[in-house]
Amino acid sequence: MSETHDSDASLSDEVYKAMLRDILATRLPGGHPVQQRRLAEHYQVSRSPMRHAISRLEGEGLLIRNGKAGLVVRIVTLKDYLDSLTMRELLEPQAASLAAVNSDNDALGALRSDFAALCEDAAPDPETVWAFDHALHGYIAARSGNPFMNSVIGEMRRYTTIFERQLPVVRAKPGMQEHGEVLEALENRDADTARDAMNRHLRVVREGVMRNY
């Protein structure tokens, strides 16, 4: 990441996104100390944009103050996970129902193409799998048409993603069958089926995590 020809604001946003990706992928694991100088060297930026990115992540609750340890990456506990998943279970089925009648054909076409490629790949890159997961759930939250629902679902998915990705046992292609059912319901503009499919998906997710915890 280079500072050349970029403003501090732009660099701050870039390093924020890079750190967020690393936290969600658990490359910056829970409990990891946040040392501004070392992180600035790692992301190849100066202290100023690094400081702003850290402040933003702290404000979002992904970095926390931990007594003598100072600022660290938040550890997502089982309780955090279950509380976040409960919120998703309350909101995402309704979001899927709304998204089904407020569809974007171009976006759905891109999702279908990505899903088909994952289905054909016996051993896909985990980052590709999670990128599709993020894209599908992000599409549903955004197409709900409710910005508050979109915001809360996005925040809760951060915590559930971190927790699931830190599990010692993770399926190569988690949720593919249920994702296919949700996607088909969205393509058919079937609100009731989309709601039911999302309910089923989140139930399967919960059951799978509890088996592997």
Automatic annotation (TrEMBL):
Keyword Iron-sulfur tagged: no
Q: Which Pfam families match?
A: FCD, GntR
Q: Known InterPro entries for this protein?
A: GntR_C, TF_FadR/GntR_C, Tscrpt_reg_HTH_GntR, WH-like_DNA-bd_sf, WH_DNA-bd_sf
Q: Which UniProt keywords apply?
A: DNA-binding, Transcription, Transcription regulation
The segment(s) forming the HTH gntR-type domain are: 9-76
Annotated SUPFAM superfamilies: GntR ligand-binding domain-like, Winged helix' DNA-binding domain
Q: Where is the signal peptide?
A: none
Q: Which residues form a coiled coil?
A: none
GO MF terms here are: DNA binding; DNA-binding transcription factor activity
Q: Does the keyword Transcription regulation apply?
A: yes
Q: What name has this protein been given in UniProt? A: DNA-binding GntR family transcriptional regulator
Native source species? Martelella mediterranea
State the organism's lineage: Bacteria, Pseudomonadati, Pseudomonadota, Alphaproteobacteria, Hyphomicrobiales
